[in-house]
Design the sequence.
């Protein structure tokens, strides 16, 4: 089995359109939640979100290509481009067949779907874009990355709700361990910022309704949380076999050493009470990494700011880590960037890698009054310096999809 290392990072987020900008703002507790600007949210009960700001696709691809992509694909191409450049990976005819792409999503091009349905009903069938299907299809982010960078290896995409980004890491890990490819461009992307999506999540009762105070709307593990904040963005890692990375002299951030995937088989949106499905995913990740629970230093939590998720994730962590759970810091990037759905776990992976690199834990902001049922160390409100040798990224999705991925300091 091949060892797998991380050699490049890319991110598009509500608090930064590059990894350095995102990480600086995350560590400093900068909040990306505002009143929705993409459309007029006045008719909606929920009028706030965590939007990507000042994103210009023409900085990452030509104008013609950008016009034929939904925003979720544009984000994926941009994040992948940053990660490839960061890794120093040169893609050419000689190696393109040994490089793969796995960029997952939760919903694909939902704004494109909404727009073209309206074109059909309000205008005419002839006004439906001929590019509708290749813009909307959830696999197109991965395909557009392949097209943009000339990658001829396996191109795959899974629709795994809010666990999609982490699912990409675990699936890519297995392909690399088996030697099926040398490199995987892997992550998640989401850009479902349209009124139908906001209305649907709002009617479900899943979203925070703090329209008058968006900066304090996302408050994972806090007693006064009232729902998640919908967000958008993308996160991408360049994963390689250790042999390939060493041969080309790549900079190695860390190793990806394990992952666990489970299903709740319980409910379309609610987690299992007590978080047993999430606990099994974390336990499997530890087993695949050949680690004991006490060996883990930090968890980049799913931490959505919903009443059910935060309690169940806390219970799951305590089930797996027992006494060590109270000694191990846990924090949620969603307190600043909202819930990026299919990109959430991918950005959580970026956070996990950077925590190892810099020895800094980003805070969980808006953590003002602890919930008695959420009684772990959530790194409240201020970043913390700490040596991090191992980190875990959690991601749990609607329908009961649970994924945990573990990263470890590379020992060379």
Sequence:
């Amino acid at each position: 089995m091949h060892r797998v290392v991380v050699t490049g990072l890319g991110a598009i987020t509500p608090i930064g359109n590059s990894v350095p900008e995102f990480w600086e703002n995350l560590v400093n507790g900068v909040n990306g939640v505002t009143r929705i600007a993409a459309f007029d949210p006045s008719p909606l009960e929920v009028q706030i979100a965590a939007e990507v700001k000042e994103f210009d696709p023409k900085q990452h691809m030509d104008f013609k290509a950008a016009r034929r992509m939904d925003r979720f694909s544009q984000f994926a191409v941009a994040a992948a481009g940053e990660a490839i450049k960061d890794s120093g990976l040169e893609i050419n005819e000689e190696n393109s067949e040994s490089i793969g792409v796995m960029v997952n999503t939760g919903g694909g091009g939902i704004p494109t779907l909404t727009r073209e349905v309206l074109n059909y009903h309000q205008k005419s069938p002839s006004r439906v874009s001929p590019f509708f299907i290749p813009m909307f299809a959830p696999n197109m982010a991965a395909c557009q990355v392949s097209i943009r960078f000339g990658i001829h290896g396996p191109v795959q995409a899974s629709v795994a709700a809010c666990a999609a980004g982490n699912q990409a890491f675990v699936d890519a890990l297995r392909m690399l361990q088996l030697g099926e490819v040398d490199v995987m461009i892997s992550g998640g992307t989401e850009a479902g910022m349209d009124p139908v999506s906001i209305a649907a999540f709002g009617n479900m009762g899943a979203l925070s309704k703090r329209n008058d105070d968006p900066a304090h709307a996302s408050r994972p593990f806090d007693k006064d949380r009232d729902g998640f904040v919908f967000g958008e963005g993308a996160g991408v890692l360049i994963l390689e076999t250790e042999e390939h990375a060493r041969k080309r002299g790549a900079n190695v951030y860390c190793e990806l050493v394990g992952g666990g995937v489970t299903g709740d088989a319980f409910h379309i949106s609610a987690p299992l009470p007590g978080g047993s499905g999430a606990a099994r995913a974390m336990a499997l990740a530890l087993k695949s990494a050949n680690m004991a629970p006490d060996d883990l230093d930090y968890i980049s939590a799913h931490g959505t700011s919903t009443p059910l998720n935060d309690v169940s994730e806390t219970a799951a962590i305590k089930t797996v880590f027992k006494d060590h759970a109270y000694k191990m810091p846990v924090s949620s990037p969603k307190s600043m960037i909202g819930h990026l759905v299919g990109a959430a776990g991918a950005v959580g992976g970026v956070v996990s890698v950077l925590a190892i690199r810099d020895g800094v834990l980003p805070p969980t902001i808006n953590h003002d009054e602890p919930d008695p049922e959420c009684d772990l160390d959530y790194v409240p409100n201020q970043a913390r310096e700490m040596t991090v040798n191992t980190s875990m990224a959690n991601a749990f999705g609607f329908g009961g999809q649970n994924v945990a991925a573990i990263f470890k300091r590379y020992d060379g």
Observations:
- The chain has two domains: 4-247, 259-408.
- The mean pLDDT is 97.
